[in-house]
Design a protein that fits this description.
There is one protein chain. The protein folds into 2 domains: about 1-65 and about 110-190, no CATH class; about 65-100, no CATH class. The chain starts with a strand and ends in a 6-residue tail after the last strand. The protein is of the alpha+beta class and about 190 residues long. It is built from 8 helices and 6 strands; from the N terminus they run E-H-E-H-E-H-H-H-H-H-E-E-H-E. About 35% of the residues lie in helices and about 20% in strands. The longest helix is centred in the middle third of the chain and has 20 residues, at about 115-130. Strand 5, helix 8 (about 170-175) and strand 6 (about 180-185) form a beta-alpha-beta unit. Helix 3 (about 65-75) packs across helix 5 (about 90-100).
Length: about 190
């Protein structure tokens, strides 16, 4: 089906007070009632579809992540041949990383460096603004390939990564991994 960027906000967040901010950044924040995901996030967190786009297949988030390329090569016939030749896991991993290190991902090829920079700056600015107003103590972002509807899809959040907003940079967002919840915190509230 499609990629979607979803996210979390604390239960106490007053969504109405953020409507102008959402509008300025073309964000929707439509609440999703996905029991599977809600059971995996903080108790009482609100879970949202973040963007207004039809889908997020063209999102800049995670565009440089080569996780799928790595897995494809790891499961390839070539790696099976290397294992038969008694290559170690470290040697195979190094070989794979060497193969994919300079490979551009499909969306990256379609974007000019300026477009890529503009899109990622917009996300960084949005995250800074939403956390700067003291109305939000954290925001979570999650990228997932949905095969079913947003409320029906069941998948496991692999891990939660906490990021101080002062540490945010393009590399973090460009390399976002699928099914990892990234929680961004203002500097005054890293928990």
């Amino acid at each position: 089906m499609c990629f979607y960027i979803t996210g979390t906000l604390p239960q106490t967040t007053k969504i109405d007070s953020l409507k102008n901010l959402f509008k300025n950044f073309n964000m929707a924040f439509n609440q999703i009632n996905n029991k599977n995901i809600i059971s995996q996030i903080r108790p009482g967190e609100k879970y949202f579809r973040i963007t207004r786009e039809y889908c997020d297949c063209n999102t800049i988030l995670g565009v440089s992540n080569k996780q799928k390329e790595y897995q494809t090569l790891l499961n390839s016939k070539k790696v099976k041949t290397l294992r038969k030749r008694k290559w170690t896991d470290d040697q195979i991993s190094s070989w794979i990383y060497e193969k994919i290190k300079d490979k551009e991902m499909p969306l990256e090829r379609r974007l000019t460096p300026i477009e890529k920079e503009e899109k990622i700056k917009k996300w960084i600015e949005f995250l800074r603004k939403i956390l700067d107003n003291k109305l939000v103590s954290r925001i979570g972002l999650l990228k997932h390939w949905y095969n079913q509807g947003l409320e029906e899809e069941e998948f496991k959040i692999r891990e939660t990564r906490k990021v101080n907003i002062d540490d945010i940079n393009p590399k973090i967002l460009l390399n976002m991994e699928e099914d990892v919840l990234y929680e961004f915190f203002p500097s005054y509230n890293i928990k």
